[in-house]
Amino acid sequence: MIEVRLRGWRPDDVPAVLAAFAAPDMAQQSARPVDTPEAALEWMAFWGFRDDARAFAVTAGGEVVGNVAVSNIDAHDTGWVSYWTSPHARGRGVAAAATLLLAEWAFRERGLFRLELGHRLNNPASCAVAVKAGFAAEGIERAKLRYGHERFDVERHARLATD
């Protein structure tokens, strides 16, 4: 896997966030459009001030190339993992390497026991990321996600601190 690092999001990362969310597949990944510097700063701030979540900028060669996060941390020491990479960084193992680092951080620093994630069945690249990062497939959730008027089945994966 490619060498990546995780760090907190910074205001000077606005151009990288805007470039990532300009990709058509990324535009639907946020509840509100991330298409202005102000919106990018709001997106970063959303992740920066929560007790139930933590997001990291993913860097490779000093360049911001993605995001990994754990959110919805609950009383059962379980969190929900999400990730994205900028279009130009895809296919190089960035997301899998970053997700592996995130899992190690979540187990060690946050004391979580279980991490979950899900991907649309029509997204085999996301499935490959989950598997490479040590997340075992657990089953299909029918029609779980809706984008526009279309519903998508989701495959859930999980990784335990004991895996």
Main features:
about 30% helix; alpha+beta; about 160 residues; about 35% strand; Aminopeptidase; seven-stranded mixed sheet
Average pLDDT across residues? 94
Strand content: 25-35%
Under CATH, the homologous superfamily of the domain at 5-115 reads Gcn5-related N-acetyltransferase (GNAT)
What is the overall silhouette?
globular
What is the helix fraction of residues, given as a range? 25-40%
Largest sheet: 7 strands, mixed
Distance between the termini: 20 Å
Protein name: N-acetyltransferase domain-containing protein
Pfam family, one: Acetyltransf_3
Domain N-acetyltransferase: 4-159
Architecture overview:
- The chain has 163 residues and is α+β, with helices and mostly antiparallel strands.
- It has a domain of 111 residues: Aminopeptidase.
- 29% of the residues lie in helices and 35% in strands.
- The chain is built from five helices and seven strands.
- A seven-stranded mixed sheet has the order 1-2-3-4-5-7-6, sandwiched between helices.
- Strand 3 and strand 4 form a beta hairpin.
- Helix 4 packs across helix 5.
- The two termini are 20 Å apart.
- 33% of the residues are buried.
Give a quick rundown of the structure.
Helices cover 29% and strands 35% of the residues. The chain has 163 residues and is of the alpha+beta class. The protein has a domain at 5-115: Aminopeptidase, CATH 3.40.630.
Topology (SSEs and partners):
Elements lengths: L4 E3 L6 H8 L2 H4 L9 H12 L5 E7 L2 E9 L6 E8 L8 H15 L5 E7 L3 H9 L3 E12 L2 E11 L3
Helix pairs in contact: 4-5
